[in-house]
Amino acid sequence: LRGQTILSEDNYIVSPTAATANNIQQSGFTANWSDVGASNYFFDLSTDNFNTFVTGFSNQSVGNVTSLAITGLNAGTSYQYRVRSSDGVTISGNSNAITVLTIPATPVVSAATDVTQTSFKINWSAVSGATGYRLDVADDDEFTQFLTGLENLSVSSTTQSINVSSPGTTYYYRV
After folding, report:
1. DSSP letter string over 57-110?
2. In this model, does residue 2 exceed pLDDT 60?
3. Coil, strand or helix: which one is 41?
4. Does the first or last residue of the chain, that is N or C, have fewer Cβ atoms within 10 Å of its Cβ?
């Protein structure tokens, strides 16, 4: 059907169906949609349900493709995308909208504080958009020997006190 007008039963051009994004990163993702045999697709990207658009992504002509790699976005931010198809003359209505949350930024961990023979306090920076953190504490810098209960520990604040039973031992942590 390429190069021909794509009509539904009601003689309207068929809208594509937006599909789940993949390759989600801190600064981007890949948007996907169904192939309706269009000669071109138009893409919109927003952070506020299409009241405004991300610069460069309002009615962006993307050609005859069914996915688009989006880069240069903000970490930990919710985005919405939608697409339209075209036969070169007519443009369809909007597809469904897909919401994508980019991965939050990586927290910056600082040196341990309140260090004693049997405890220390881990501190890190807050990350915009994060609703929680995951903490690992290990005996080795390769993180293969986790302390009991301290692998992928869910933490809601930006500090965590750790009790240890081996004075004089070096411990490694990451958030």
Report:
1. -SSEEEES-SEEEE-SPPTT-EEEEEEEEE-SS-B------EEEEPPPPPPPB-
2. no
3. strand
4. N
**Tokens describing residue 36:** 């309706």
26 within 8 A of 102, measured Cβ to Cβ: yes
Band the pLDDT of 35: cuts 50, 70, 90: very high
Angle at 81 between CA 80 and CA 87, to 5 degrees: 165
Q: How many CB atoms sit inside 10 A of residue 30's CB?
A: 15
Alpha carbon distance, N-terminus to C-terminus of the chain: 52
At 105, list the tokens: 């930024």
Query: β-pairing, 67-70 with 29-33?
Result: antiparallel
Whole-model pTM above 0.85? no
Q: Which two tokens stand for residue 107?
A: 């927290």
Is 136:153 a contact under the CB 8 Å cutoff?
Answer: yes
* CA distances for 147 relative to 8, 38, 136, angstroms: 61, 56, 8
Single out the residue of 47, 29, 38, 40 nearest to residue 8, CA to CA.
38
Map tokens 């909208």 to a residue: 97
φ, ψ at 161 (rounded to 5°):
-85, 140
Given the structure tokens 């260090």, which residue do they identify?
115
